[in-house]
Amino acid sequence: MKSKHLTGDQLLAALAALSNPHRLRVVAALAAGGRNYVSQLARELNISRPLLHLHLQKLEDAGLVTSQLELSDDGKALNFFDVAPFAIDLSPAMISTAVATLTNNPEK
What pTM did the predictor assign? Predict the structure, then answer.
């Protein structure tokens, strides 16, 4: 995700996703340690798996992280998450351009 190509709705989703300290910690942990599966990431961040799932879903919906379901050698399903490449360079001009593309329902 590159900031110059963000629509107004995409910008709102990205900023909303990043406006939570837990989600910032998730992005930081994935950026520093690489892809990780939910249970391990929950332990590292000292957060419950259900709460982590909610935060990961918000980040994924905004296009800031990606997920891939894989089977372990013992047959367990592991959902791995990784940071998606993104850069958001906020400026008044970029915001003006993004605002012109807002839909009537920016909460999508």
Answer: 0.84
User: Residues of 6-22 as b/e, b for ≥16 C-beta within 10 angstroms?
Assistant: bbbbbbbbbeebbeeee
Q: State which CATH number among 1.25.40.10, 3.90.1150.10, 1.10.260.40, 1.10.10.10 fits the domain covering 3-98.
A: 1.10.10.10
State pLDDT tens for residues 6-23: 888 999 999 999 999 999
Residue 20 to residue 39: CA distance in whole angstroms: 20
Kindly state the tokens that stand for 48. Answer: 């419950």
pLDDT digits (tens, 9 = 90+) for 36-61: 999 999 999 999 999 999 999 999 99
* Among 52, 63, 66, CA closest to 23: 52
Opening angle at CA 24, ends 62 and 107, nearest 5: 30
